[in-house]
Hints:
The protein starts with a helix and ends with a helix. The longest helix has 22 residues, at 64-85. By secondary structure, it is mainly alpha-helical. Helices cover 60% and strands 0% of the residues. It has helices at residues 2-19, 36-40, 44-52, 64-85, 95-110, 119-125.
Amino acid sequence: MKNRMIELLSYPRQMLHDDIDLVSCLHAGFYDKQDRGCRECENEAQCRWLSANDKFVALERKPVRDLAQSLAFVLDYMNLRIGRWGHDPNVCKCSSCCWFCEASDVFGKVSPIQRPCNPVVLESMVGLA
C-alpha cells in the first residue's frame, strides 16, 4: 500500500508545479522555510508540498502517516480542480477523475480519519480563489 501511495503522489505533482509562477520565484519552486518571501508567498502551500514530495525525496522512508497527509492535501487540491472543470469523478473517466477515485480509495484504506475539505480555505491556500 505504501508503494501505491508513493506512485499516486506523482500524478498531481506536475499540476502543482505548473501552478507556481516560477518566473518570479527566487527559489525556482523549492520551498525555503527560512525565507520570509517563501512564508508569505501565495504559492507557499504548493511549494511546501512539492519540496516535501519531490521525486528526488526519499518518499519510501517516510511513514505511512506522512504519506497519507501528503495524499490528503493533493486529494483536496485535485477535488477543487475537478470541480472547477465541472467533472464528476463518479461518472467521468478522464485521467484526473480516475486518479481521484483511486487515490480516494487508497486514502480511505490507510487513514482512519475523514479527509477535511474546506474549499474556501483550500482555494485561498492554493491561490485558486
